[in-house]
Write a sequence for this structure.
């Protein structure tokens, strides 16, 4: 019913996971809907900080606009490691506070979701920072999945990996349970060539760009 697809690749990484030209149209033409996922790395606690959350949110907004995801679409930001409870407090929650702060500057555009273990999803939701969870239940060895109930706002629950198709068309996918909380999108409004970047932006420069823009707003526009 619904397909989750990545907005970006990790800078310098070897995996090419992001949405391809024409892919969204093909998915919709076959009666499916799409929800976007943002993940570049996120494999340990040290990645997660408030400033990185701001940077991730701005990058996700840019890519979502590029692909034409309309206002109201929920973007799932990944916490792809076994975060123990104190790391949720010290790193993950501040990270999502940064995401929320950046999203608040684009009022009405995109909602915030989270991908991660049960306890991580539950705690971030309880902090009022997400509206839906994509639960990594397939990671059965994660302590954050052991003994914790599935969060009330779960939208997708990852349970197994399966292969579909054959030959050159074979692909491995993660099979998820679908709750109906998030139906995804089935129409898109891509940015025009006038709005799009004329070159691929280097995501390693995003934090510097954010600092420069904020300094400009303070000095030139007098904003707090």
């Amino acid at each position: 019913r619904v397909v989750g697809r990545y907005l970006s690749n990790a800078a310098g990484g070897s995996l090419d996971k992001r949405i391809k030209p024409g892919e969204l149209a093909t998915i919709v033409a076959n009666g499916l809907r799409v929800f976007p996922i943002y993940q570049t790395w996120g494999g340990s606690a040290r990645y997660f900080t408030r400033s990185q959350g701001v940077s991730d949110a701005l990058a996700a907004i840019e890519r979502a606009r590029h692909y034409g995801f309309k206002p109201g679409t929920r973007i799932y930001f990944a916490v792809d490691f076994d975060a123990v409870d104190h790391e949720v407090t010290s790193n993950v929650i501040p990270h999502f506070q940064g995401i929320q702060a950046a999203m608040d500057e684009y009022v009405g555009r995109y909602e915030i979701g989270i991908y991660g273990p049960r306890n991580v999803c539950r705690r971030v939701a309880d902090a009022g920072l997400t509206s839906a969870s994509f639960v990594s239940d397939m990671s059965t060895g994660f302590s954050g999945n052991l003994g914790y109930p599935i969060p009330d706002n779960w939208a997708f629950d990852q349970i197994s990996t399966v292969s579909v198709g054959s030959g050159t068309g074979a692909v491995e996918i993660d099979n998820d349970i679908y709750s109906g909380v998030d139906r995804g999108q089935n129409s898109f409004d891509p940015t025009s060539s006038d709005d799009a970047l004329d070159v691929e932006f280097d995501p390693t420069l995003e934090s510097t760009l954010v600092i420069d823009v904020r300094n400009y707003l303070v000095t030139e526009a007098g904003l707090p």
